Amino acid sequence: MSLSALGAAAAARRRRVAPALAALLLAACSMGPEMPPVDPGFEAPLHSEGPLAYRTAPANQGGSASPADAARPLLVLIHGTPGSADNFRWYLADAALAQHYDMLAMDRPGFGRSDVPVMPDLELQAHQLISLLPPDQPLQLLGHSLGAPLALWLAFLLPERVQGLTLVAGSLDPAYEQPRWYNRLADNALGRWLLPREWEHANAEVLALAEQLEALLPAMGKIRAPVLLIQGEQDSLVDPRSPQALLQRLPADTRREVLRLPEAGHFLLWEQPKQVRDALLRFHAGATR
Question: pLDDT tens digits, residue range 82-107?
Answer without folding.
Answer: 889 999 999 999 999 999 999 999 99
